[in-house]
Specification:
By secondary structure, this protein is an all-beta fold. The chain has no helices and twelve strands. Strand 7 and strand 8 form a beta hairpin. The N and C termini lie far apart (63 Å).
Length: 139
């Protein structure tokens, strides 16, 4: 048995696909893996329903609006909840995991560049796997 090893010093560049959301609406499972940029205030973005065939789908939502000017509301399907924490210096943002409750980048504290990464980890369960900024779970 022989093995051939090839070594390369070539640089590999990876580009994340980008989408700009300009109106309230839905993202679909096929949008998973595409960065979603939001620069328009007061949009509600509805997440796809988690099903066995789309477990593991991951979404990044980024606030590209002006500081203190852009509320972003991520709304799970009525059967799903958002769980997790974004650590902050003042107070952590905690998603309660309650079914059908939104996850919100609060307007007054919003900064350009705030983001949240959500992954469908189990049926009915979105998890925050990364993020920056002040986010709040709908009460």
């Amino acid at each position: 048995m022989s093995t051939t090893t090839t070594t390369s010093n070539d640089i590999v560049y990876v580009q994340a696909r980008q989408n700009t959301i300009t109106a309230t609406g839905d993202v679909v499972a096929g949008d998973a893996g595409i960065d979603q940029n939001v620069a328009t205030d007061a949009l509600v973005i509805t997440l796809p329903k988690i099903e066995a065939g789309n477990l593991g789908m991951t979404f990044l939502f980024r606030n590209t609006g002006a500081d203190g000017n852009n509320i972003i509301t991520l709304s799970p399907n009525a059967a799903d909840g958002i769980n997790g924490t974004i650590a902050n210096s003042s107070a952590d943002s905690v998603a309660s995991g309650v079914v059908d409750k939104d996850w919100i980048n609060t307007k007054a504290t919003a900064n350009k560049g705030d983001y949240c990464i959500l992954r469908a980890v189990a049926l009915t369960q979105w998890y925050v796997i990364g993020g920056v900024g002040i986010w709040a779970s709908e009460s």
